[in-house]
Write a structure and sequence with these properties.
Elements (H helix, E strand, L loop, with lengths): L1 H21 L1 H7 L1 E8 L2 H12 L5 E6 L3 E9 L2 H13 L8 E3 L4 E6 L11 H12 L18 H9 L3 H13 L13 H13 L10 H18 L1 E6 L4 E6 L3 E7 L2 E6 L6 E8 L2 H11 L11 E3 L3 E7 L4 E8 L3 E9 L4 H14 L1 E2 L21 E2 L2 E2 L5 E7 L6 E4 H4 L4 E4 L3 E9 L4 E6 L10 E2 L9 E6 L10 E9 L9 E5 L10 E3 L5 E5 L14 E6 H10 L5 E2 L8 H11 E7 L1
Parallel strand pairs: 23-30
Antiparallel strand pairs: 1-3, 1-4, 2-3, 2-5, 6-7, 7-15, 8-9, 9-10, 10-14, 11-12, 12-13, 13-14, 16-17, 18-19, 18-31, 19-22, 20-21, 20-31, 21-22, 24-25, 24-27, 25-26, 26-29, 27-28, 28-29
Length: about 600
């Protein structure tokens, strides 16, 4: 009998405390408030709330439906207390004449104070009162053993579930949704979808799969949900610079700077979470351009799905250091959106947060960031930064040239070995289709068919010693978008060891030039520049370079099913014409890791 009484007592204490925790959200609706104003925009409502906060210590703001925002004072214990306070406010002229008492049932998400929890927490005093009421004894200073949840049968769990009110059931659904188990409407109806979500949560936690949560399970689930919300600090933010209203993790980020087209929110502490708000004037072309530019930034890793249509796009990316999600869309002559960036260890929470951000994202018409930040905006002019964000750079960039009408490119093997990704120009991905390890040649095929303006014409005859030659190459790798012409002379038709496949050049070149075509004065390709090599025991003089001869190039291409064009007779070209011809056949080759 004594054991049964102890169990009953423990159950009473636990159920009472659990009910207080689960019904915290319902307190907002059960209490009374004085609504002093309602404003049609969030910005106006925040301004008015801040003004009233100078006169009252308990000002709050809540969204009403989808288009209005309430500024309120409270809460009060009941309507009588709220009405008494309202009368005092009116006598002192502190509130408008149309202020009134409300029960808060229409209140949505809290927007003021910023970062305030949307559900009123239960105080320690309230929990103490609950224990005293359940036990008939006062709580003392000596620590008491924590009440443990009694084991419940499915029938008992279903009975305790049946005593939950609508707000408590909705809170359970929100907690299940936050954990990624529930996808239905937050309607407080515990139907098949909610049952399946409960089963999913129980399986994930290693609990018996009954589809009915016990009192202890509900308390654990909701407690974890509230703890996450408290840490993350989800709050409605109205950014009047970008013209965007959005719910974001305000506990993890804070305003940092404006650098058009972005408003930067940096990490607080060591959270590693960042948010960008995107805002610029433009049309479909602007949207498509932003889609391309965003993918050059370090904050958008290359691995991840991309989706674009005529009015919006999404970008997802992940690597070992960070993950991100970007959404942008056309809105009234502007492109607006956001990017959420987080460390991989925050993936579970951030994937839920990004959904909330997407659902709450609201562009404000008529408010757009200027095209530039001006002197006060802190625009960083470094070439490897874009609007304060680091641009992704290749591991190395070299030169190649087109040898077929479908866009096949010849370059050095040194340029493309051990690369996670190879690109031609600025964005076309390519793969290695053939190698010559002895000469260091590589044949690349673009993944998207290209139509080069010009393909290389190889010289069939042995070039004349001492003749003037030029190399077209991306000397400065990916910094310039056109090749540089480097002029010199052909000093030998063999390599330093007498190799018939090599040509020796008297000219100074840079690493980025390797893979570039060596041209005679008629524009015929007599060879391909090879890298200087990294032999620590022997280094060539700065003005000595080696090239693979045209006959060796032709043989390599023929072995791989390509018939190179052969150069015909013709006059020497003016320097500007030679430069133009070289640019038409030359392309940047980049290695990405």
């Amino acid at each position: 009998m004594r054991q049964r009484r102890v169990t009953r007592l423990t159950e009473t204490i636990f159920a009472t405390c659990s009910a207080l925790l689960l019904s915290a959200a319902a307190l907002q609706a059960q209490q009374s408030w004085v609504q002093v104003e309602a404003q049609p925009t969030l910005a106006d409502a925040e301004d008015r709330a801040r003004a009233y906060a100078g006169a009252f210590p308990n000002v709050a703001g809540f969204r009403l439906g989808t288009s209005w925002y309430a500024v309120v004072v409270g809460p009060y214990a009941d309507d009588a207390a709220a009405a008494s306070e309202l009368s005092a406010f009116r006598r002192q002229g502190l509130v408008p004449s149309d202020a009134y008492v409300t029960d808060g049932e229409r209140f949505g998400r809290r927007f003021f104070p910023v970062g305030a929890a949307p559900i009123t927490p239960v105080s320690e005093e309230a929990l103490d009162d609950a224990v005293e009421q359940a036990t008939g004894t006062e709580t003392g200073s000596e620590p008491a053993a924590e009440p443990q949840a009694p084991e419940e049968t499915v029938a008992e769990a279903r009975a305790s579930e049946g005593r939950l009110n609508g707000e408590e059931r909705r809170l359970l659904q929100e907690a299940l949704k936050w954990q990624g188990h529930y996808e239905g409407a937050i309607d407080g109806a515990i139907g098949p979808n909610t049952r399946r979500a409960m089963s999913s949560w129980q399986r994930a936690e290693g609990r018996p799969d009954t589809g009915v949560l016990t009192t202890a399970e509900r308390t654990e689930l909701v407690g974890a949900f509230r703890e996450d919300l408290s840490r993350i600090g989800m709050a409605q933010i109205a950014d009047d610079k970008a013209g965007i209203e959005i719910i974001m993790p305000a506990g993890l980020v804070e305003f940092e700077e404006v650098n058009p087209p972005f408003v930067h929110y940096g990490s607080t502490g060591d959270s590693g979470v960042r948010v960008l708000l995107i805002s610029q004037s433009g049309d479909e072309g602007t949207l498509f351009g932003l889609y391309d530019i965003m993918q050059t930034l370090e904050i958008v890793p290359q691995d991840g799905p991309r989706e674009r249509n005529r009015t919006s796009f999404t970008l997802e990316g992940a690597n070992e250091e960070l993950e991100s999600y970007t959404y942008a869309a056309l809105s009234g002559g502007a492109v607006k959106g956001f990017t959420l960036i987080w460390p991989p260890e925050e993936a579970d929470a951030m994937n839920r947060i990004r959904q909330t951000m997407r659902e709450s994202f609201t562009p404000v018409s008529g408010v757009i960031l200027p095209d530039t930040a001006g002197e006060a905006g802190g625009m960083d002019q470094a070439s490897d930064l874009l609007s304060g964000l680091e641009v992704r750079r290749p591991a190395r960039s070299r030169t190649g040239f087109f040898v077929a009408d479908d866009g096949a490119v010849l370059t050095t093997l040194d340029a493309v070995e051990n690369c996670e990704r190879i690109s031609l120009g600025t964005s076309t991905d390519a793969t290695i289709t053939a190698r010559d390890t002895a000469l260091g040649l590589a044949l690349l095929s673009p993944e998207t068919r290209l139509a080069p303006i010009r393909t290389a014409a190889l010289e069939a005859e042995v070039p004349r010693l001492g003749s003037e030659v030029a190399v077209a190459g991306f000397s400065y790798e990916d910094i310039l978008d056109a090749p540089v012409m480097t002029f010199g002379t052909l000093s030998d038709v063999r390599g330093l060891g007498g190799e018939e496949t090599l040509r020796r050049l008297d000219m100074e070149t840079l690493p980025g030039d390797s893979g570039g075509p060596v041209l005679d004065q008629r524009g015929a390709v007599i060879g391909m520049l090879l890298p200087a090599g990294d032999d620590a025991d022997r280094r060539l003089p700065a003005d000595v370079s080696l090239a693979a001869g045209a006959d060796a190039l032709a043989a390599f291409l023929a072995e791989n099913g390509l018939s190179a064009r052969t150069a015909g007779n013709g006059p020497a070209l003016p320097a500007e014409d030679l430069t133009a011809r070289a640019a038409d056949m030359t392309t940047l080759v980049s290695c990405w890791n």
